[in-house]
Design goal:
By secondary structure, the chain is of the alpha+beta class. It is built from one helix and eight strands; from the N terminus they run αββββββββ. It has one helix spanning about 10-65; strands spanning about 65-70, 95, 115-120, 125-130, 135-140, 150-155, 165-170, 175-180. Strands 3-2-1-5 form a four-stranded antiparallel sheet, covered by helices on one side. It is elongated.
Length: about 190
Amino acid sequence: MNPGNSARGFTLPEILITLGVIAILLSVAVPGISSTVKENRLATTLNSVITDIHFARSEAVKREVRVIMCRSRDPNLPVPTCSGDENNWTSGYIIFADDGKNTNNVFDNGTDTLLRRGQPVMTGVNLHTNSFWNRNLEYNPDGSTNEEGTARMSICDNRGRANGRYIIVAPSGIPKMHARNIPTCYP
């Protein structure tokens, strides 16, 4: 055997030690990555909803009409409806300008103007509202809400209220966000 021409590879103990170190590093890193993914889902949902609330308010003022954000079982239907499970906005919502003829808080195709479709939230995220924001959030032409009290929406995942987000809309119409240690995931 010529020492200058021999090929050197890894020995079995070297491979086992390397794989052991990789396994330890992955066991530490994967839970951190999972938590980061969950945090990003909550933040993305919060930002999307709060953007749509600001949009609804600004459209009410700009158009000088009532603008309604209502939950919808399927916002992507050709003619979506205000529908869905009680206090649950997870399946999506629609935002429309009311024509002023019917004050029924329901999207009337042909007379009302559909402004935006809020898509269903990402898997593992839930949106729930209190009774003031149950079926819809209605903005008046002056930017205030037509709700009788403070509307609240929680954005949570399986980690619960400790990591949840909260949106509060006072009768003045201005939304405020709160993150972490929210009062409840079911306002």
